[in-house]
Amino acid sequence: MYGAEGLLWTGHKCRPISLTTILRRIYEKVLHPVLTGSTVDRMHPAQAGFMQSDSTLRPLQLADHSQRPYRILYDAMFAFDSPLFHILAAELADMDVPRSLRRSIHYLFFCSLTSTLIANGRKSWMIGRRRGLFQGTVLAPPPFNVYLNRLLCRFSQGFGSHMSLLLVIILAYADDIKIFATSYDEACRMTRFILQACSLLGLRIRASKCAVLSHNMRDIRLEIDFGDHSILAKANEK
Amino acid sequence: MSVPPYDTHRPLATTTVKKIRSLIKGYQSTKASGEKGIHILLLKAVLPGPFAHNLTTVFNILLDLQVTPSHWNHALVCMVPKDYSGLATNAGPYR
């Protein structure tokens, strides 16, 4: 893709925004509060993105900073285009979303989806979609949060987050996940967990855009293995 | 994947003309129109007429039947470049 001043852009450096009809967007605005209202109580405290009437800073205050100096940021590739419909439908049912609303979501997001890609002033042919949510639409973020919710719950259970103390060791700003680890070994174990869980959800982590940060670095070279790629940690800027 | 059956016990709450008017009025005028080319400014222009009543009626039928038109499920996908400098401290690509 050609950008400003003749710069060449690849798909990885772009955000695929879906433009739907204006009537659908207004209809989604009608459904949005109904969906968020029926899922908000079941959302993990680490959900920090697209949570209505909730600051993105709130979970950051709850994060365990002092004892967990190692942080890893994971970047999922084309995250909104990845959710598998059958998993999302099951998650919505597990969250006790009313059947009437699930039926409406089914027709809006899982049924006969097509897209036309626009690049360099040209339109592609119509592409059938078998997975993914329309990124940029009004109603896409809440189902995406629902999709990731189980991963966050299992991560917290597996790595001993003390929910009673309201400390979170993982944060999710929609598809951008950040973890807080006590040690290098734990950071590696957490990374393996995230990679495996994301793989089951059909999400692909792009190692080249992940970042490892640590307070405890002076002379050591800390590398986290992402399977096909390893990331060298950077010292936190102060 | 099967469609969840029609739910008669907990139907979706219907919407009102006032609500639809406020949603259209409050919608940002700078947003792009979709493939049909209907811009929000056009809807805002016809808002004082019977349009809002008619749209509310249609929406309430959709809410009652718990379905949506299939042609709403087509999207134009525009690739919007991210400001990606490669720095972990740059929040731009994460928005």
Can you put this structure into words, describing what you see?
The complex is a heterodimer of chains A (238) and B (95). Chain A has 238 residues and is α+β, with helices and mostly antiparallel strands. In chain A, 34% of the residues lie in helices and 22% in strands. Chain A has 6 helices and 11 strands. In chain A, strands 2, 5, 6, 7, 8 and 11 form a 6-stranded mixed beta sheet that branches. A two-stranded antiparallel sheet of chain A has the order 3-4. A two-stranded antiparallel sheet of chain A has the order 9-10. In chain A, helix 3 (85-94) runs antiparallel to helix 4 (99-110) and helix 3 packs across helix 5. Chain B is of the alpha+beta class and 95 residues long. Chain B has one domain (12-95). The chains are: A alpha+beta (238), B alpha+beta (95). At the A-B interface, strand 1, helix 1, helix 3, helix 4 and strand 3 of A face helix 1, helix 3 and strand 1 of B. Strand 1 of chain A pairs antiparallel with strand 1 (74-81) of chain B, so a sheet runs across the interface.
What would you say about this model in short?
Chain A contains 6 helices and 11 strands. Chain A is of the alpha+beta class and 238 residues long.
Q: What summary fits the major beta sheet of chain B?
A: none
The SS-based structural class of chain A is alpha+beta
- In this structure, how is the largest beta sheet of chain A organized? 6 strands, mixed
In whole angstroms, how far apart are the ends of chain A?
37 Å
Radius of gyration of chain A: 19 Å
Question: What is the percent of helical residues of chain B?
Answer: 25-40%
As a whole number of angstroms, the C-alpha radius of gyration of chain B is 19 Å
Protein chains sharing the most extensive interface: A-B, 60 and 51 residues
